[in-house]
Design brief:
Layout lengths: L3 E6 L3 H10 L7 E7 L3 H9 L3 E2 L3 H6 L5 E4 L6 H10 L3 E5 L6 H14 L3 E4 L6 H12 L5 E9 L19 H15 L4 E9 L9 E8 L4 E7 L9 E5 L2 E5 L6 E6 L11 E3 L2 E3 L10 E3 L12 H11 L7 H19 L1
Parallel strand pairs: 1-2, 1-4, 2-3, 4-5, 5-6, 7-10
Antiparallel strand pairs: 7-11, 8-9, 9-10, 11-12, 12-13, 13-16, 14-15
Helix pairs in contact: 4-5, 5-9, 7-9
Protein backbone atom coordinates (compact mmCIF):
# COMPACT_ATOMS: atom_id res chain seq x y z
CA UNK A 1 0.00 0.00 0.00
CA UNK A 2 1.11 3.57 -0.66
CA UNK A 3 2.94 5.68 1.92
CA UNK A 4 1.03 8.39 3.77
CA UNK A 5 1.91 11.97 2.86
CA UNK A 6 2.74 13.87 6.07
CA UNK A 7 3.62 17.44 6.98
CA UNK A 8 5.11 18.29 10.39
CA UNK A 9 3.76 21.33 12.22
CA UNK A 10 6.50 22.50 14.58
CA UNK A 11 10.09 21.64 13.68
CA UNK A 12 11.62 21.89 17.14
CA UNK A 13 13.20 19.09 19.14
CA UNK A 14 10.34 16.61 18.86
CA UNK A 15 9.28 17.64 15.37
CA UNK A 16 12.77 17.13 13.99
CA UNK A 17 13.07 13.84 15.89
CA UNK A 18 9.93 12.60 14.17
CA UNK A 19 11.25 13.80 10.82
CA UNK A 20 14.71 12.25 10.95
CA UNK A 21 14.29 9.26 13.25
CA UNK A 22 10.77 7.93 13.73
CA UNK A 23 9.44 8.62 10.23
CA UNK A 24 12.60 7.58 8.43
CA UNK A 25 12.43 4.21 10.18
CA UNK A 26 9.15 3.66 8.34
CA UNK A 27 9.97 5.47 5.09
CA UNK A 28 8.10 2.89 3.01
CA UNK A 29 4.94 3.74 4.95
CA UNK A 30 5.47 7.43 5.76
CA UNK A 31 6.34 10.06 3.16
CA UNK A 32 7.35 13.37 4.76
CA UNK A 33 6.48 16.15 2.33
CA UNK A 34 7.67 19.11 4.40
CA UNK A 35 7.31 21.22 7.51
CA UNK A 36 5.79 24.43 8.82
CA UNK A 37 7.10 26.39 11.79
CA UNK A 38 6.69 29.96 13.02
CA UNK A 39 10.48 30.43 13.31
CA UNK A 40 12.58 31.22 10.24
CA UNK A 41 15.65 29.51 11.69
CA UNK A 42 13.76 26.22 11.85
CA UNK A 43 12.61 26.64 8.27
CA UNK A 44 16.23 27.12 7.31
CA UNK A 45 17.27 24.00 9.23
CA UNK A 46 14.52 21.97 7.57
CA UNK A 47 15.41 23.33 4.14
CA UNK A 48 19.02 22.26 4.66
CA UNK A 49 17.68 18.75 5.26
CA UNK A 50 15.93 18.86 1.90
CA UNK A 51 12.41 19.32 3.25
CA UNK A 52 9.75 21.47 1.60
CA UNK A 53 8.88 24.62 3.53
CA UNK A 54 5.27 25.72 3.92
CA UNK A 55 4.95 29.44 4.60
CA UNK A 56 1.76 29.14 6.64
CA UNK A 57 -0.48 26.62 8.35
CA UNK A 58 -3.17 27.59 5.87
CA UNK A 59 -0.86 26.57 3.03
CA UNK A 60 -0.48 23.12 4.58
CA UNK A 61 -4.25 22.71 4.91
CA UNK A 62 -4.80 23.89 1.34
CA UNK A 63 -2.38 21.35 -0.13
CA UNK A 64 -4.55 18.47 -1.34
CA UNK A 65 -1.55 16.13 -1.49
CA UNK A 66 -1.18 16.33 2.31
CA UNK A 67 -3.06 13.46 3.92
CA UNK A 68 -1.94 13.85 7.52
CA UNK A 69 -0.21 16.32 9.81
CA UNK A 70 1.90 15.82 12.91
CA UNK A 71 1.46 18.53 15.54
CA UNK A 72 4.63 19.07 17.59
CA UNK A 73 4.03 22.56 18.98
CA UNK A 74 3.63 23.98 22.53
CA UNK A 75 0.84 22.29 24.46
CA UNK A 76 -1.65 25.17 24.47
CA UNK A 77 -1.81 25.20 20.65
CA UNK A 78 -2.73 21.53 20.21
CA UNK A 79 -6.49 21.94 20.36
CA UNK A 80 -6.80 24.71 17.78
CA UNK A 81 -4.36 23.16 15.31
CA UNK A 82 -5.90 19.70 15.66
CA UNK A 83 -9.44 20.96 15.08
CA UNK A 84 -8.43 23.06 12.09
CA UNK A 85 -6.55 20.14 10.60
CA UNK A 86 -9.46 17.75 11.03
CA UNK A 87 -11.94 20.26 9.59
CA UNK A 88 -9.66 20.70 6.56
CA UNK A 89 -9.90 16.98 5.84
CA UNK A 90 -6.53 15.95 7.25
CA UNK A 91 -5.76 13.09 9.58
CA UNK A 92 -4.05 14.42 12.70
CA UNK A 93 -1.30 12.94 14.86
CA UNK A 94 -0.63 15.02 17.96
CA UNK A 95 2.31 15.02 20.34
CA UNK A 96 1.66 14.54 24.03
CA UNK A 97 0.14 15.96 26.11
CA UNK A 98 -2.74 15.90 23.67
CA UNK A 99 -4.38 18.97 25.24
CA UNK A 100 -4.39 21.16 28.31
CA UNK A 101 -7.29 19.25 29.89
CA UNK A 102 -10.01 16.70 29.20
CA UNK A 103 -12.49 19.35 28.06
CA UNK A 104 -10.14 20.37 25.24
CA UNK A 105 -9.59 16.76 24.22
CA UNK A 106 -13.34 16.15 24.11
CA UNK A 107 -13.71 19.07 21.70
CA UNK A 108 -11.06 17.56 19.43
CA UNK A 109 -12.62 14.10 19.52
CA UNK A 110 -16.06 15.54 18.73
CA UNK A 111 -14.66 17.17 15.58
CA UNK A 112 -12.87 13.96 14.61
CA UNK A 113 -16.14 12.06 14.90
CA UNK A 114 -18.01 14.75 12.98
CA UNK A 115 -15.51 14.86 10.11
CA UNK A 116 -14.71 11.16 10.01
CA UNK A 117 -10.98 11.90 10.02
CA UNK A 118 -8.52 10.03 12.23
CA UNK A 119 -7.03 11.61 15.32
CA UNK A 120 -4.22 9.85 17.20
CA UNK A 121 -1.76 10.76 19.94
CA UNK A 122 1.95 9.95 20.04
CA UNK A 123 2.68 8.14 23.31
CA UNK A 124 6.13 6.82 22.39
CA UNK A 125 7.15 5.57 25.84
CA UNK A 126 5.11 2.40 25.36
CA UNK A 127 8.05 1.28 23.22
CA UNK A 128 10.82 2.04 25.76
CA UNK A 129 12.96 -1.08 26.46
CA UNK A 130 12.82 -0.54 30.25
CA UNK A 131 9.03 -0.40 30.16
CA UNK A 132 8.86 -3.50 27.96
CA UNK A 133 10.92 -5.40 30.55
CA UNK A 134 8.61 -4.31 33.38
CA UNK A 135 5.58 -5.16 31.27
CA UNK A 136 6.94 -8.66 30.67
CA UNK A 137 7.66 -9.15 34.38
CA UNK A 138 4.16 -7.95 35.27
CA UNK A 139 2.38 -10.13 32.73
CA UNK A 140 4.47 -13.28 32.93
CA UNK A 141 5.09 -13.25 36.70
CA UNK A 142 8.79 -14.20 36.72
CA UNK A 143 8.93 -12.83 40.27
CA UNK A 144 5.37 -13.75 41.13
CA UNK A 145 2.42 -11.40 41.21
CA UNK A 146 3.72 -7.84 41.35
CA UNK A 147 2.13 -5.77 44.08
CA UNK A 148 4.27 -2.61 44.12
CA UNK A 149 5.74 -0.58 41.27
CA UNK A 150 7.96 2.50 41.57
CA UNK A 151 8.59 4.46 38.37
CA UNK A 152 10.91 7.47 38.37
CA UNK A 153 12.72 9.85 36.06
CA UNK A 154 15.09 12.30 37.73
CA UNK A 155 17.57 14.89 36.54
CA UNK A 156 19.38 17.97 37.81
CA UNK A 157 18.91 20.43 34.92
CA UNK A 158 15.67 22.07 35.99
CA UNK A 159 12.75 22.60 33.63
CA UNK A 160 14.00 22.56 30.02
CA UNK A 161 13.38 25.11 27.29
CA UNK A 162 11.39 28.31 27.47
CA UNK A 163 7.62 27.80 27.16
CA UNK A 164 7.73 24.80 29.54
CA UNK A 165 8.26 27.30 32.38
CA UNK A 166 4.92 29.01 31.67
CA UNK A 167 1.51 27.79 32.91
CA UNK A 168 -0.35 29.44 30.02
CA UNK A 169 1.53 27.21 27.58
CA UNK A 170 0.97 24.03 29.59
CA UNK A 171 4.40 23.93 31.18
CA UNK A 172 5.56 21.89 34.14
CA UNK A 173 6.70 18.33 34.65
CA UNK A 174 3.31 16.69 35.14
CA UNK A 175 2.35 17.70 31.60
CA UNK A 176 5.83 16.89 30.32
CA UNK A 177 7.22 13.62 31.76
CA UNK A 178 4.23 12.86 33.96
CA UNK A 179 2.10 12.11 30.90
CA UNK A 180 4.54 9.38 29.86
CA UNK A 181 4.84 7.69 33.25
CA UNK A 182 1.11 7.78 33.96
CA UNK A 183 0.35 6.43 30.49
CA UNK A 184 2.73 3.53 31.11
CA UNK A 185 1.31 2.64 34.51
CA UNK A 186 -2.35 2.88 33.48
CA UNK A 187 -1.68 0.81 30.36
CA UNK A 188 0.18 -1.75 32.46
CA UNK A 189 -2.21 -2.15 35.40
CA UNK A 190 -5.64 -2.86 33.96
CA UNK A 191 -7.59 -1.98 37.09
CA UNK A 192 -9.63 1.04 38.17
CA UNK A 193 -7.95 3.51 40.51
CA UNK A 194 -9.12 3.32 44.12
CA UNK A 195 -7.05 6.11 45.64
CA UNK A 196 -4.55 8.72 44.49
CA UNK A 197 -2.37 11.22 46.36
CA UNK A 198 0.01 13.78 44.86
CA UNK A 199 2.72 16.12 46.12
CA UNK A 200 4.02 18.76 43.69
CA UNK A 201 7.45 20.38 43.86
CA UNK A 202 8.07 24.09 43.26
CA UNK A 203 11.58 24.34 44.72
CA UNK A 204 13.07 25.98 41.60
CA UNK A 205 10.81 29.02 41.85
CA UNK A 206 8.70 28.56 38.70
CA UNK A 207 4.94 29.02 38.54
CA UNK A 208 4.68 25.48 37.18
CA UNK A 209 5.70 22.29 38.93
CA UNK A 210 9.33 21.25 38.60
CA UNK A 211 8.46 17.73 39.75
CA UNK A 212 5.94 15.65 41.66
CA UNK A 213 5.38 12.41 43.54
CA UNK A 214 2.12 10.56 42.92
CA UNK A 215 0.85 7.54 44.84
CA UNK A 216 -1.78 5.37 43.15
CA UNK A 217 -3.65 2.45 44.68
CA UNK A 218 -5.59 0.33 42.19
CA UNK A 219 -8.65 -1.74 43.01
CA UNK A 220 -6.64 -4.93 42.42
CA UNK A 221 -4.42 -3.71 45.33
CA UNK A 222 -1.39 -2.99 43.15
CA UNK A 223 0.30 0.17 44.41
CA UNK A 224 2.36 2.51 42.24
CA UNK A 225 4.65 5.40 43.05
CA UNK A 226 5.28 7.80 40.14
CA UNK A 227 7.99 10.42 40.59
CA UNK A 228 9.48 13.11 38.34
CA UNK A 229 12.27 15.35 39.59
CA UNK A 230 14.46 18.03 38.01
CA UNK A 231 16.67 18.90 40.99
CA UNK A 232 18.13 15.45 41.71
CA UNK A 233 21.93 15.41 41.60
CA UNK A 234 21.96 11.71 42.35
CA UNK A 235 19.10 9.53 41.20
CA UNK A 236 17.05 6.59 42.37
CA UNK A 237 16.37 3.60 40.07
CA UNK A 238 14.21 4.11 37.00
CA UNK A 239 12.05 1.18 38.15
CA UNK A 240 11.77 -0.71 41.43
CA UNK A 241 9.23 -3.53 41.45
CA UNK A 242 8.23 -5.97 44.17
CA UNK A 243 6.57 -9.32 43.57
CA UNK A 244 5.54 -12.01 46.02
CA UNK A 245 8.49 -14.14 44.86
CA UNK A 246 11.16 -11.59 44.08
CA UNK A 247 12.31 -8.03 43.45
CA UNK A 248 13.49 -6.18 40.35
CA UNK A 249 15.49 -2.98 39.96
CA UNK A 250 16.18 -1.25 36.65
CA UNK A 251 18.61 1.59 37.20
CA UNK A 252 18.24 3.51 33.94
CA UNK A 253 17.39 3.26 30.25
CA UNK A 254 20.52 1.13 29.69
CA UNK A 255 18.77 -1.73 31.56
CA UNK A 256 21.43 -2.08 34.23
CA UNK A 257 20.09 -3.44 37.49
CA UNK A 258 19.14 -6.72 39.19
CA UNK A 259 16.36 -9.25 39.20
CA UNK A 260 16.28 -11.48 42.29
CA UNK A 261 13.85 -14.33 42.91
CA UNK A 262 13.33 -16.58 45.91
CA UNK A 263 14.30 -20.17 45.13
CA UNK A 264 11.66 -21.69 47.35
CA UNK A 265 14.23 -24.16 48.59
CA UNK A 266 13.48 -25.82 51.92
CA UNK A 267 15.85 -26.17 54.87
CA UNK A 268 17.89 -23.12 53.93
CA UNK A 269 20.12 -21.49 56.51
CA UNK A 270 18.42 -18.89 58.64
CA UNK A 271 19.72 -15.32 58.25
CA UNK A 272 22.48 -14.48 60.70
CA UNK A 273 22.40 -11.19 62.60
CA UNK A 274 24.55 -8.46 61.10
CA UNK A 275 26.07 -5.31 62.57
CA UNK A 276 23.79 -2.39 61.65
CA UNK A 277 25.22 0.91 62.84
CA UNK A 278 25.61 0.56 66.56
CA UNK A 279 23.23 -2.39 66.83
CA UNK A 280 22.47 -5.84 65.46
CA UNK A 281 19.65 -6.92 63.16
CA UNK A 282 18.42 -10.21 61.81
CA UNK A 283 15.40 -8.64 60.11
CA UNK A 284 17.51 -6.63 57.66
CA UNK A 285 20.22 -9.25 57.16
CA UNK A 286 20.55 -10.58 53.59
CA UNK A 287 18.91 -13.94 52.84
CA UNK A 288 21.16 -16.96 52.63
CA UNK A 289 22.61 -17.68 49.19
CA UNK A 290 20.56 -20.83 48.71
CA UNK A 291 17.34 -18.90 49.39
CA UNK A 292 17.62 -16.63 46.34
CA UNK A 293 18.82 -16.58 42.74
CA UNK A 294 19.66 -13.83 40.28
CA UNK A 295 17.77 -13.90 36.98
CA UNK A 296 18.44 -12.15 33.68
CA UNK A 297 15.94 -9.57 32.50
CA UNK A 298 13.52 -10.72 29.80
CA UNK A 299 14.25 -9.53 26.27
CA UNK A 300 12.70 -6.05 25.80
CA UNK A 301 10.48 -6.78 22.82
CA UNK A 302 7.08 -5.41 21.87
CA UNK A 303 4.54 -7.75 20.34
CA UNK A 304 2.95 -4.72 18.67
CA UNK A 305 4.12 -2.70 15.67
CA UNK A 306 6.14 0.51 15.76
CA UNK A 307 4.11 3.70 16.17
CA UNK A 308 4.20 4.89 12.56
CA UNK A 309 3.70 1.40 11.18
CA UNK A 310 0.52 1.31 13.26
CA UNK A 311 -0.49 4.77 12.00
CA UNK A 312 -0.12 3.53 8.43
CA UNK A 313 -2.21 0.44 9.10
CA UNK A 314 -4.89 2.46 10.89
CA UNK A 315 -5.25 4.80 7.92
CA UNK A 316 -4.78 2.26 5.14
CA UNK A 317 -6.16 -0.97 6.61
CA UNK A 318 -8.57 0.25 9.28
CA UNK A 319 -6.39 -1.40 11.95
CA UNK A 320 -6.85 -0.78 15.67
CA UNK A 321 -4.68 1.99 17.16
CA UNK A 322 -2.10 0.86 19.71
CA UNK A 323 -2.56 4.17 21.51
CA UNK A 324 -6.32 4.51 21.84
CA UNK A 325 -8.00 7.86 22.41
CA UNK A 326 -9.96 6.40 25.32
CA UNK A 327 -6.65 5.56 27.03
CA UNK A 328 -5.27 9.03 26.30
CA UNK A 329 -8.40 10.54 27.80
CA UNK A 330 -8.04 8.40 30.94
CA UNK A 331 -4.50 9.71 31.48
CA UNK A 332 -5.58 13.31 30.93
CA UNK A 333 -8.51 12.89 33.32
CA UNK A 334 -6.08 11.66 35.99
CA UNK A 335 -3.83 14.67 35.35
CA UNK A 336 -6.84 16.99 35.73
CA UNK A 337 -7.62 15.27 39.03
CA UNK A 338 -4.04 15.64 40.28
CA UNK A 339 -4.10 19.38 39.58
CA UNK A 340 -7.44 19.62 41.40
CA UNK A 341 -5.99 17.81 44.41
CA UNK A 342 -3.07 20.26 44.46
CA UNK A 343 -5.45 23.22 44.49
CA UNK A 344 -7.35 21.71 47.42
Amino acid sequence: MSAINFVIIGYGGMGSYHAHTLMTEEKEKINLLGVYDVLDKRHQAASEKGLKIYESFEAVLADETVEAILIATPNDSHKELSIRGLQAGKHVICEKPVAMNVAELDEILAVAKETGNTFMVHQNRRWDPDFLVVRDLYQNKQIGEIFQIESRVQGANGIPGDWRHLPEHGGGMLLDWGVHLLDQILWLVKSPIKKVVVDFSYVLGDKVDDGFICYITFENEVKALIEVGTSNYTTLPRWYIKGYEGTGRIDDWDLSGKLIRATGAEDVSAPKPIQAGVGLTKTMAPPSEEAMEELTFPEPTAEYDSYYSNVHDVLRKNAEPIVKNSEVREVLALIDHLFELAEQ
